[in-house]
Amino acid sequence: MKMFGRVKRNWVVPAGQEPTELDKKVIAYQNKGILCPRRDMIRTPEQIEGIRRAGLLNTAVLDLVAANIKEGISTLALDDLIGEYTRAHGGVCACLGYEGYPKNSCISIDDVVCHGIPNANTILKKGDIVNVDCTTILDGYYADASRMFVIGGETTPEKQRLVDVTKECLDLSFEVCKPYTTVGDLGYAIQKHAEENGYSIVRELCGHGVGLKFHELPEVCHYGRRGDGMLLVPGMTFTIEPMVNMGKRNVTFDRMDGWTCRTADGLPSAQWEHTFLMTENGLEVLTY
Ligand code: MF3
Ligand code: CO
Ligand code: CO
């Protein structure tokens, strides 16, 4: 295939169609060597409505978690609540059965970075910092989000600061992610904020396009260089989900279950995640 420069020309105007204003704008970036989305990654209004509705149910699920998470509850009991509520409202838990994953949600405590598998033996304790990550499918559309919870409302100042700075890493997306910036602009800003606070960014796992499937393009890295990565065009839907480690960025995956991701140094990790829509005016959050 003929390539122009080093970047694949993803954005193609269908043969015989008159280029729209959007086509002209994106192709100008593409001609400068910036990685662009495929034209079919731009959601239709109907798709956006569907993803928005999935996001509302996913938010209700996480609100249910917020109301029930407490010292003494097992992660399995929380996962059961998530499954029951989601199904009672016509949704499907995307995690269940995804590449063999056995539960409705991921619940990750302290040094577990992500993909903690809910189980009856893991009982939440005062001072735990816990990420609950839910992905809901509604009428075929997907929304993916996670929040941190501090069990008993109080933890060490060190763990509380990690939770707070990680939330700041997600929130700075609203300032940085304007239409026609790139994923690298975002990754640069998130990495900078985490590292300025003495933390590190996990590299093995990234955010992702979401909406019609669980994990789609673009790959949304939470580290990187300005201008690298894919151009963010109005109509794209994707997650941003920084995983921030208190210590070194290295992680391990559990050899027995194949899923549980832990920090290599055993220090705590935090994560917050939203599903976003890029609009003409910047990011719109579709979850909470
Ligand atoms: N929800 C996770 C994400 O943010 C993915 C979990 S996949 C599972 O992308 F199989 F572990 F559930
Ligand atoms: Co995600
Ligand atoms: Co998620």
What would you note in describing this structure?
With 288 residues, the chain is an alpha+beta fold. The chain has one domain: Creatinase/methionine aminopeptidase superfamily (Creatine Amidinohydrolase). Helix content is 28%, strand content 23%. Strands 1, 2, 4 and 5 form a 4-stranded antiparallel sheet that branches. A 3-stranded antiparallel sheet has the order 3-12-11, with no helix packed on it. The chain is globular, with a radius of gyration of 19 Å. The model has no long low-confidence stretch (mean pLDDT 97). The protein binds 2-amino-4-trifluoromethylsulfanyl-butyric acid and cobalt (II) ion (2 copies). The site of 2-amino-4-trifluoromethylsulfanyl-butyric acid has 12 residues, from β4.
Helix/strand layout:
Elements: H1 21-31, H2 45-68, H3 75-88, E1 92-93, E2 106-109, E3 112-114, E4 129-138, E5 141-150, H4 157-171, H5 173-176, H6 183-196, E6 200-201, E7 207-209, E8 216-220, E9 237-240, E10 243-245, E11 251-253, E12 261-263, E13 269-271, E14 274-279, E15 282-285
Helix pairs in contact: 2-3, 4-6
The structure holds 2-amino-4-trifluoromethylsulfanyl-butyric acid and cobalt (II) ion (CO) (2 copies).
One cobalt (II) ion (CO) is lined by residues 133, 135, 144, 146, 241, 273.
Brief overview:
This protein is an alpha+beta fold and 288 residues long. Helices cover 28% and strands 23% of the residues.
What letter string, H or E per element, gives the SSE order?
Answer: HHHEEEEEHHHEEEEEEEEEE
Q: Rg to the nearest angstrom?
A: 19 Å
According to CATH, the fold-level topology is: Creatine Amidinohydrolase
Structural domain count: 1
Number of beta-strand segments: 15
Estimate percent helicity.
25-40%
CATH architecture: Alpha-Beta Complex
Name the CATH superfamily classification. Answer: Creatinase/methionine aminopeptidase superfamily
- Biggest sheet details: 4 strands, antiparallel
Percentage of residues in strands = 15-25%
What small molecules does this complex bind?
2-amino-4-trifluoromethylsulfanyl-butyric acid, cobalt (II) ion
Low-confidence stretches: none
Measured between the Cα atoms of the first and last residue, the distance is 42 Å
Q: Which of globular, elongated, flat, extended, rod-shaped describes the shape?
A: globular
Instruction: State the helix count.
Output: 6
CATH class: Alpha Beta
